[in-house]
Amino acid sequence: MLQKQKLLSLYDEKVKGLVKKLLLLDGDLESEVSFEDFLWANSIFWTRALNIPLPHSYVFPQIQEDQNNCGSVNKSYEVFTDQSGDLINEQEGKGDEGEAQRVDSQVNGITSTSLQSETLWVEGLVPGIDFCNHDLKAAATWEVDGTGSSVTGVPYSMYLLSVGKCSPIQDGEEISISYGNKGNEELLYLYGFVIDDNPDDYLMVHYPLEAIQSIPNSDTKAVLLEAQRAELRCLLPKSLLDHGFFPPHPPNECDNTCKTGPICDFSWSGQRRMPSYSNKLVFPESFLAALRTIAMKQDEHLKVSSLLEELVGPGGERQPSDTEVRAAVWEASGDSGALQLLLDLLHTKLMDLEENSGTEDRDSELLQKTSTERLGQHACYENNSSEETNGSTSTTQKHKWMSIVYRRGQKELTRLFLREAEHALQLALSEGN
């Protein structure tokens, strides 16, 4: 609904009048373009667009001509400079969410040679490649032959490259590519499909900004939050659970890396020991730092002020770093208050999800009712699928199936991260943290 409202505003303010002028210039006095036409075109483009690397002179031919005449150019644009030269690879770059690096740059007085060597990333449709569906085990990736000397013989031509090392793609086999490591929320919003049991799924947890105004010492806590560069929201990828207290898969014996947060590296009094569970916490430190600050009691808040005054000195010789502020907050309050607040946020999220659509078991029951034989044989369904649908009933079932898969995944992740937070809180309390 939010996306449709945004597109409606765009259509009314810019697109409608522009299309009318273009039709008049083309001599078409009868055709009329509706908002539904714009929705169709918008969907067709953005569910199939690739980030394509092109020479600067191709994207801005007039600017290149002016530059050759005047010797300088003053233009802002999104630019990615190709440092490697020949082959430009875009394995996971479909749509405006591709992995291509974007840099806003103000160009002044650049020579003709340097401009010609610039590579700009531009979203566009590539016939043939734009038919490729997404797959976790993609059969191919697409690449750009930067100079035309490597594969195709044509500069900046694009081609598909098989990723299979053992056997070539067989006749009749679908050629799929990867759109990137995207969760179901992103896939559903951008492309209109989901993946059941998506390994790249994630959960978003946030503390409402407006709620800070109602907590004790809200003004000074807001200053502390800014000093720590703390985040009031975080994305929790499903993969984090592999390193938590309850990993879904047996731990890799080769992966014995210990995760220690900055909170354990600094202490004034030495009275608070490094937690035994620090290398198992799956929650981002920047988010926990925010929750520690918000959950601080009055005496803990005063202790933080005292500790920081020791660092600053009577004359305010220097400002404490963000790491030092985090350490002061951690030494004064520990982890238990933050973890309890995190539990409350996760409980609230789960209650909201279940209030709107029931439990995970209820979702599973609905999936069985809505699954057809075709839905049961495929893991994901895309708007640009080449398969024909059997009328509006099949389309409705497909949309219903995707919605249920998405929300069931959100409930599952909330429950799993809730278990991680509960166990961490128990350990924190037992260790006096």
From TrEMBL:
| Leader sequence segment | none
UniProt GO MF annotations: protein-lysine N-methyltransferase activity
What spans are recorded as compositionally biased (Low complexity)? 382-396
Note down the stretches annotated as region Disordered.
373-398
Write the protein's name: SET domain-containing protein
